[in-house]
Design a protein that fits this description.
By secondary structure, the protein is α/β, with parallel strands linked by helices. It is 36% helix and 14% strand. It is globular. The chain starts with a helix and ends with a helix.
Length: 430
Amino acid sequence: MWSLPVIACWMLIIGTRNGYSLKTRIPENPEASMNLSQIMSYWGYPNEQYDIVTKDGYILGLYRIPHGRGCLGTAPYRPVVYLQHGVSASAFNWIANLPPNSLAYILADAGCDVWLGNSRGTTWSRRHVSLSPDSEEFWAFSFDDMANYDLPATIDFIVKKTRQKQLYYLGHSQGTTIAFISFSTNPKLAQRIKMFFGLAPVGSVNHIKSPPTKLFPFLESLTKVLFHRKAIFSDTKFNQFLATKICNLWVFHWLCKGIFFATYGSDYRNINEVPPPALESSKKLHEEGLTFLEEVPQPHDTSKRHDLEGNFTEIYVPILTPILANSIITSGRLQAFDWEDPALNIVHYNQVTPPLYNVTLMMVPTVLWSGGEDMLADPADVDSLLPNITNLIYHKRVPYYNHMDFCLGMDAPQQVFYEVISMIMTNMQT
C-alpha cells in the first residue's frame, strides 16, 4: 500500500523533469458528465431506459438499444441480447469504447435488440423502494441476491417487453458468476436463455494473483471498520474527480493506468496509445481507456454482504486497486453467502454451512472466452471450471488477454464480438 505514494512522488519528479506540470492535462472528455442514455445518443444510437423493481425492493436501471444507427424501428424477429457487466463495473462497460469497438453498438448495428443491465448498488441502480443508499441495510446484499432477485426480475421484464420467449445472455466476470448460480438453480429462468456467452468466467479464484490472498482477511476487516459496512467510493462525483482531475494529468496518467493493469493483468499492446490526430478529444480518451476510469470503481462490490460467500468482495486502495476477498478464496468453491454463524446458516439454509452451487446442473448451451494473462479469472481456475459446464459447446482462450480486454481491448471485435454475432445468426437459422 505504501508503494503507491512513493510511485506517485516518483512520477511527479519524472514528469516535472520532462516538462510536464500538474497543469498539463489530457483533453477533457465531454462524456464525463453524461449518463448512459446521453452517451448513447451522443453517438447516434436510439435508446430507452426502464426501472425494474426486484422482489426485495431494489430498483435497477435497465437500458435498451432497440436497433442500430442504420435501422428504423423494431422488428419481432430481432435477436434479443442481454449484457451483464462484471465486478466493480456497470453497463457503461459495453459502450466504453468507440462504436466500432463497443459490443453494445456492434450488436445493435448487426440487427440485435440489445439490453444492458446494472446490478444493485451501481451508479444506475442505487435506489430502493424503502431503504436509503446511505443506510447499512441498503448494502446488505451478496451475489446470491443478484442471482436470485436481480437477474430473474430483469430477464422477466425483457421477455415480456419484447414478447419473445428466449434471449441470448452475455456476461463478463461477475456476470458469468451470477449466471452460473441462476441457471443452475432456477430451471424456469434457464429455459428463457437460448445461449449463454461468458467472457472471463469466474467460478473460483484459487489461483488469483491480484493481490496476495493472505492480505484478504485483514483488508476486509479494516474496510468494514473504516466504511461502516457501506459502499466504498459510493460518490460518483469522487470517481469523476479521480478520472478527470487526477488521472488525466500527464504526470499521473501512467500511474493510474499502471494500477489498472496491475489489477487486471498487464497488456499495454491492446490499447491504442497513439490515436489518429484527426480524432476528437473524446475519441482519444476512449481509445486510451480513460473514460472507463470515470466509471470505476463501482460501489456495489464493496457491500456488507457482497462476498458471494462462494463469491467475493472488492475493496479499493487507494485509487483503483481491487482486492478480491472472501470465502470463494478461502474455500475455493462457489457457494451461498456464509453468515459466519452456524445458527444463522441453519436459519437460512437448514444446515450449518452454506450450500454449494452445482454448476453441472446448468443445461444452457454455453460458450466461453478466457484470457491467458487474466489475473482475476486465472487460466488455471477457468480450466477447473470447464469440465463442470455440462453443455459447453465452445471455449476460446486468447493468450494475451487480461480481464478487461474483453470489454476494452482494441481487437475485442475480432477476437470475441464477431464470433458472438456469428453464433447468434447461425443459431437463428437452425
